[in-house]
Specification:
330 residues; alpha/beta; six-stranded mixed beta sheet; four-stranded mixed beta sheet; 10 strands; 32% helix
Length: 330
């Protein structure tokens, strides 16, 4: 075959491969470039890190976000870095990569191309995490955290890159709210967190207005995230107690919530005593005070405020677990 013909065939093959790719192009983000991080606090004096994976912030008919989409990146910074990630700022140096996240369309159409979009996004998250380990971690303990799509990618990291590796000994805890996680899907050696000072474990919850019908949600979570023959009970950590022995707590136990929806400008002050919550059948049933103006989706879903409603509770608990991890290593 002539060289020109070979070149043509190779070009056609490359185009065919690109056509099958659900993502926005073949060039992967370079995580040595600070521009590809929403937060990267290398060299911090804090003894512990948090690696945070942001939720879906890209609403589009496209399958994955382009890395140069400045609107999506700015919204990620505003709605996640400044209202979710900062809950860990008291205990930890912050690391949060931008990645070619799956879009809101992929969540609705999760079979087929939607699943490919999530896999494409996870490849970026994995690459960012491995870069963090190689260049920033330097043997420091860390918290793994993420919400919604970020929790899904975090669970995959636990299974594939942390459990059973030397990195596992550095894991303080994983906070993965906004994802229905069956207990049987957790990797061996990394259980759900039983108590506020448990370490090397997973805390997760999904917020619904108290009294909501959650049967369909539970079934979908087991179908999407369960493992064959595994325990199908969803894990539920009540952020007001982080104690499986105390599954319910009144509003006066709430340390502080971020009210309202993300908006440009200063982040609103915390409001304490405004949220009651109880774990029931693997789901967190929540009664927020109307003054918090929590966004409520159809079916009583309070997913958008999984972290905002419990901001100070998460912050306090993360510091508690860090202290417990440090004591255990001494």
């Amino acid at each position: 075959m002539r060289p020109a013909a070979v070149a043509l065939l190779l070009s056609l093959w490359a185009l065919a491969c690109a056509a099958m790719e659900p993502g926005p192009g073949p060039v992967a983000p370079d995580y040595a470039d600070p521009a590809n991080w929403s937060a990267r606090e290398s060299g911090s004096a804090k003894p512990v890190d948090v690696f945070y994976i942001h939720p879906t912030t890209f609403r589009s008919e496209d399958w994955n976000q382009q890395m140069d989409n400045q609107t999506a990146r700015a919204w990620t910074d505003l709605s996640v870095r400044d209202r979710q990630l900062d809950a860990f700022a008291a205990c930890c140096a912050r690391f949060m990569p931008h990645y070619r996240q799956a879009s809101s369309r992929a969540f609705v159409e999760r079979a087929g191309e939607g699943a490919k979009a999530y896999a494409f996004a996870y490849a970026d998250v994995r690459r960012a995490f491995l870069h963090y380990l190689a260049h920033d971690n330097k043997g420091r303990p860390f918290i793994l955290a993420g919400h919604s799509q970020g929790a899904l990618h975090g669970l995959k990291l636990l299974r594939s890159e942390i459990a059973g590796t030397p990195t596992e000994r550095l894991l303080v805890a994983a906070y993965l709210p906004g994802l229905g996680i069956p207990a049987g899907s957790l990797p061996p050696g990394i259980p759900s967190c039983a108590h506020p000072d448990s370490t090397g474990c997973v805390a997760s919850w999904n917020s619904f207005a108290d009294g909501s019908d959650v049967a369909a949600y539970v079934a979908r979570s087991v179908a999407d995230n369960g493992t064959p023959g595994g325990d199908t009970r969803l894990i539920c950590s009540n952020p007001l107690t982080f104690d499986t022995d105390i599954p319910a707590a009144p509003a006066d136990a709430a340390r502080g919530a971020r009210p309202g929806s993300p908006q440009p400008g200063p982040v609103p002050a915390l409001e304490s005593g405004k949220v009651a919550a109880a774990c029931r059948d693997g789901v967190l049933m929540v009664s927020p005070d109307p003054s918090l103006k929590v966004d409520r989706l159809p079916g009583g879903v309070l997913h958008m405020a999984d972290i905002a409603m419990f901001w100070a509770d998460i912050s306090s608990n993360a510091s508690l677990r860090v202290a417990a991890w440090m004591r255990s290593r001494k």
